[in-house]
Amino acid sequence: MKKIYSAFVALLLPMLAMAQFTVSGKITDERTGQPLPGATLTLQSMQLAPSTVSQVNGNYEFTNIKAGSYVLKISYIGYQSTQKTFNLKGNLTVNAGLTASTFTADEITVNATRASAKSPTTFTNLKRQDIQKNNLGQDLPFLLNQTPSAVITSDAGAGVGYTGIRIRGSDGTRINVTINGIPLNDAESQGSYFVDLPDFATSVDNIQIQRGVGTSTNGAGAFGASINIQSNTRRDSAYAELNNSAGSYGTVKNTVQVGTGMLGGHFTFDGRLSRISSDGYIDMASSNLKSYFLSGAYYGKTSVIRANVFSGHERTFQAWNGVPDVVIGDPDYEKSTGQNPRRYNELGIMANGDRYRNQVDDYTQNHHQLLYDQQITSQLSFSGALHYTKGYGYYEEYRKNDDLLGTYGIKPVTIGGTTITNTNLVRRRWLDNDFYGVTYSLKYRPQNKLNFILGGAYNKYDGDHFGNVVYTEQSAGIIPDYEYYRNNAKKNDFNIFGRAEYEVGNFLLYGDLQYRHVYYESYGLENKMQLINIKDKFNFFNPKVGVTYQLNDRNNIYASFAVGNREPNRNDYTDRIATQPKPVSENLKDFEVGYRTTGTVFSGSLNGYYMKYKNQLVLTGQLNDVGSQIRKNVKDSYRAGIEAQGQVKITRQLSWAANATVSTNKVKNFSQELTNYSVPDYDVLPNVVQTLAKSDLAFSPSFIGGSEIAFSPVKNGSIAFLSKYVSKQFLDNTSNINPTSITTSPDVASNSYAANRYLKAYFINDVRLNYNFSIKGVKNIGVTLLVNNVFSKKYESNGATYPDVEGGTLYNYNYYFPQATRNFLASVNLRF
After folding, report:
1. Where is the TonB-dependent receptor-like beta-barrel domain (predicted)?
2. Model's pTM, two decimal places?
3. Which of 110, 374, 111 is nearest to 230 (CA)?
């Protein structure tokens, strides 16, 4: 019997070793006993570190955990972090009461413009580790590629230099971006130029992306999404980090980070210095980028004051025209020229065929932020910020055989009996601007069931636009750095909002009211040698209501309705054709409904949206002379779709995160005007007008999908396979279908309209390998290899089209922005 018993135990031991147990418990406030929902819990062992968050009632659970020794780390905003060590032999309950921090948390600064865990708003949160795992030198939009409904693009083709992001088909001018609650979008163009802040992602602690109108925020209204960025917060221990990356197309990134940790129980200082250089995938599209970030903070028992100073300088060769279709589609181009047609760049080619070596965009942007948080009482807190941004720089370009009088106001000169009216020349166009203001919020929480925020901002912009002719091949009789235009623009932007969340049983009721006043003026001589005198004021009322129903601790459903209003940007005024009416403000009514679930094995969400626009400023498919999209008002359009995202832990080593968006994006009764070169007086006679009853909005794919499969075969090592699919996108708003009516003389050939004005669908796959280890004197050494587009897919992520009528036939002149085929980035991170 002893032998049988011993044999039975011997057989049972491996099974016991492989047994899987549950660790669960409740997280509460140690003083009040109230549950703390949203606390972050990490269960660390020698092998893995799974994490989860506590539910509405403070409960949490880890399932399928093997026997062994563990450390449970618990953190929650505004509370002291804690940890518990135990040896797991069976199902275990571990409760924890957290002590309120003696310091006010930095997170108060951004809470006013963020959605909470139960808000009836569609959002995605990204933690620092989510952002940093792909941060090897590419611009911030590329680090957001795996978020729902996002489509990214790069002028230079490899993610360094000018990049862009679209969310739900809305481009960057319609995506509100804030850093610590302070607007980043340019006040005039409304775009966010992340190239001006290279490697800023290294100084980011977390990001919340709200899709749709979202909560009230500062700056221009969100018509596709808002990206709320919080920069680095407190680190209690001193640190130093060296991060070096290198990869394809001469890409190199060098970053140094240092921090003092907490000094004297109150002070912290942090700093970063970065440089990034890349030749770019596209010819003559190199980038030379530099930046720094400095931050100092004082932590009191009830207050925090933080000063941030950060700056970026970019010098990028221009690639904003794209590649003409006649080049990219020419099968003999490479054979005849010896060059890859996908990498062709027409900008900067001089009359003699050589390249102009200073065809660059050169810009510096300096940011100053003073942030103050004060816990007035246990129920009342205040946050305020003063900010000032200084931007200045130019772009320089070579121009072949330019018209001196018509373009630069230079009278023809006669030299040696020859009258000079045209010549090759070089010009610079400058922008020198100041943006400053104040943001504030007052948060009142008289009870656990009520949360009220009163916030707002007042911001001012003052910008000078001017241009110089710095070189002419033939004498034009002008002084050095001849100034041929100058105009000034001013903009005042004021908003105030009140937001309340109130819990009644299982319901959370949400209300948000915002008033925004905008005044914009611009006057002087514009770069097309036209006098401009713009004065416009707007008063917007943006209400938002919603409700969330908590089904149980892990599941809720929500519905919301929000109104957004938005003013035109500078280019809408200056790029419009003289015969077109003045641009007007646009209005959006956004309906959202969704379901969210959280758990240790699976977390996910499913939401539907309907965004109805009035007078939407849609992209026409054309670019102006600095690569910005030209827009026009359309009376009736909409976007509707379903977004799904989820993450499942298949095993302790294997997880899968995926998202998908299915949408329809339409404009009704769209009319497109085309220049009719078929007639002698095309510049004065009416243009060709083509009208469509219903067509697709430009750059709005009907399906977007993303996937990340992560596997950890060894301790501290992981392999991830990332995929992205984007369906066909039209370059303009005509869907390449025959028009319902054509008004022209002579008639346009009826079969000439169905042309190739679209971007083909593409499916891209990346592979990321990461391994972390330590040696004596170095806390962590992280090695990462990122192989982008591993199957070397040839694709274009952006484009432009310029159709016109010639000889009674419609011709399409298309330009595409090819993205890099297989390429890699490798990095080594040393943390001390």
Report:
1. 307-790
2. 0.88
3. 110
